[in-house]
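Appendix B. Chain record.
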Amino acid sequence: ASTPPQAAFQAVPERSTPSSEPTGIVKPSFTKRFVYFGLFVGNIALLDFFAEVFRFFNWRVFGRLTMFTNIVMGGLLFPIWLLCLAWQLPGATVRFETAEHGARILLE
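Structure tokens predicted for this chain:
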């Protein structure tokens, strides 16, 4: 088991580019609203999972809850989340591809 060279643990210096952003400040890839909406959708999905499991104990109550969460998640919330992701993803991928390309140039 060989250890990696010490240079692998050093940070790659940023290139100075004329931009309106100060160096060192990184804008988030996704908006806070999208992140909070994703957490909300995830919590509803977790509730749906538990309702599916608890259906074995009380079919009538948890069956209705499962049906409601499936309709809300599958018909409304998840498609909206997917559209929001599709709208924000091109900007995030361009940013990371540019950073990766810059790091690759610096390493060569």
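Further analysis of this model is presented in Appendix C.
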